[in-house]
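note to self — DONT lose this again. spent like an hour looking for the file last time. sequence + predicted structure for the chain T wanted, 233 res
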Amino acid sequence: MKLEVLTKNENQKIQDSIIKGIKELINYKNLEPGDKLPSERMLSEKFVVSRSNVREAIQKLEFYGLLKSIPQSGTFVANIGVIAMNGMIDDILRLEKSGFKSLVETRILLELKTVRLAALRRTDDDLLKIEEALEAYKEKVLNGEDAVQEDLLFHLAIAKACRNSTMNAFMLIVTPEIITNFKEHHVCDADLAHRGIADHQAIFEAIKAKDPQMAKLKMKEHFRELYTYCYNV
């Protein structure tokens, strides 16, 4: 498995313009909860953008609960009043790009919770996937290779093992941005990467032992340098 490093800057303006267009369409046509939006093809022609751009904008609004896509049927307005929907769309458009500090804070808060739940809920299959990610990270580091993606895949395996789909989804949202910032800020030097092997091993052992308190403690220790670095950026 390989994580793609995605950036939001490239298509953010296009997405925002499509979201504004969908908002205007809903208002102009007085669409109510349950009403169907035009097809992706029709929207792409109307807004003069690609269908993939339209799809991404719809997915974003669906993530916030404003639209609902039904396979083979289309995309529908969610059960939200027009005034509330307009306000929520305006809030979405005002959201600022996450800074490195806020990403780190969010990741730490999420992971202290997910690792504890993973220790309580993990299955043998989950444990195997976490161990595989650990070994992949270890191999890259010992070979002197960049292991940022393997590092984060280890943490994503833990998030999946926590058996909370919402937390897992949040991890998948912040992870690409964190990868980009890691590379930009040169966070993972050789010393930290080698120490990460021992950190990951300790976290793995705590999850294996189903010890949530120890798992949380080891994760907190693992993030100590990253948290310090974040506040010195």
